[in-house]
Amino acid sequence: MIEINNVSKTYGKKRSLANVTLTVESGEVIGLLGPNGAGKSTLLSILSTITAPSSGNVTIGGLSLKKNQKAIREVIGYVPQDIALWEELSVKENMKMWSKMTSRSLSNEQLQSLCSAVQLEGRWKEKVKNLSGGMKRKLNIAVSLIHEPSVLLMDEPTVGIDLQSKLEIIRYIKQLAAKGKTIIYITHDLNEILDVCHRFAVLKEGKLEFVGTMDQAKEKTGEEAEENVVYKLLHD
Amino acid sequence: MISEKIKQLLKRPMLVIMIFFLPLIGTIISSSFLAKVQSDSKIPVALVDQDHSNMSKQVMDRLQKTTEIQFLSLNEEQARKELAKNKIDSIFMFPNGFQQEVEEGNYQGVIDLLTLPSSVATEAVREVVASEVTRLTTNVKAANEVRFLYKVYNIHAGPDLWKEAYRYTDNQWKPKPLMTIDYEAQGTKHTKQGNVQMTGYVPLWGFFTLLLCCITSDWMIKERRHLFKRMKTMQKGLYGYIRSVSAAYAVLYVLQALISFALFKWLYGVESYGVLLYMCIYVIVCVAFSTWLASESQRVGSYYMISVVMVTGLSIIGGSFFPVGELSATIERISQWLPQHLLLYQHALPLTFIWKEIAVSIACICLCAFKIVWNVRSIK
To answer: What residue ranges are annotated as transmembrane (chain B) (predicted)?
Structure first.
């Protein structure tokens, strides 16, 4: 379970997050929606231990983010928006390098089966720079799963790729969710929210405007069409 | 992680060639070039022997052994032509009757000197030549005096008395006759090995190695944007990653130092293992320095430019190219606090621990590591 209590983040005079409070249950998939600069990535950076919050508390699986950074890194898997891979290295070398950055020592077979799970079988020895955008995205996700984290923090994992790869990734995320992984998922795509997430949260100018299911959102906004619901949440 | 990174680096043939051979090739080419320049920069002086006697030949032979001045044996016509073309600095002529004059104990005006207004070496060469003539006349005078005394005291003398007395007097000029004193700059020790001065190529190697370290540290900039963010979320952390990659490079550069040392030993006959020790310490400093420099930079292009300027500047001040004492005493004092100082003058000494240089190197590594941590901390 992830508990975010009154978390704020300021960069100089600019406030990126303002008193955000959110609870995510184990095994839940929650989508983060919001316009650019709303604070979604900042929130994910705080949860993934990249940035420290200016104020407030975060606990992941009962571990305080301030005191147990190392232990928290054992349970979280972070999928950045950028492709965080060595382009000059092969899929195998990338997987091995990233596995060396974890506390677990995985065999080649284990790493290879992880690649197969994201449909990268047959690409094991291929250099990353020769892979398509979709394949790179899949490998980007596979890397975050090397140490078998229970919490996945995904920052727009399907941005800028072809439809087929996007559908494959969404299907894989659903599989992960079915296995009980807790996932926080940033996206701008409403369909992905509807397809993958149990609940969604709307961030606007650093403030949490809404958290709940689509039905609750419809009730709150009085709109029926999902697009209108989200539009109203983002603009009202 | 370190071994994995080393394996990866070794799979890049261009990088391997660069790390292992570029400093070596650069050093060998530059040092042979410098040796050539050094020999070309000797002041040419012509010697004209019109006497063709044993003594004139002896003086000329001795002069030609002088390494600081290039003595050319020419005939008068050639020498005058060369002087007119300003290709030589001056002409020293041994005229007919030179030996006779010397044997009579005369040393004033026994050699003719031709110079130009632009001649720079005349005074110094005149001293050298004069001392050689003085040596001869002294030997002759002493031998004559011995022969005279033998006659006065009616002592039986062998047929070679004069020659023996001459030789004996000549030997008094050894082991350090005026002509063969090794001039040594204060604090330096020059030992000739092969064609190149030993103080020349190890500091040059230091320059090329530091330059290459800076080039290969560009990973710090290239990986920062995409990889460092994720590194921060991994168990080993970003610092762990930077430490491992730097260590992997340091291992490769230490290997490079070993290979370079072996080759220097083979080519130039390095004797002291102190050189190897300080080469190894130096490469670790280089890796720390270049990683820090890269951590300060945002763009690869500007980083390369700044690196070249900084490395060249540090190498000049550190004495990698020439003794900085020639520039100024202040720069020489500064140079003693630079890591390049580790590589100066150690070749000729047995393995001695130069604590100040080692302490400076350790301080440099610590300072760079601290600054890298500080710079990386701000990566969001």
So the answer is: 12-35, 202-221, 241-263, 275-294, 301-322, 353-374
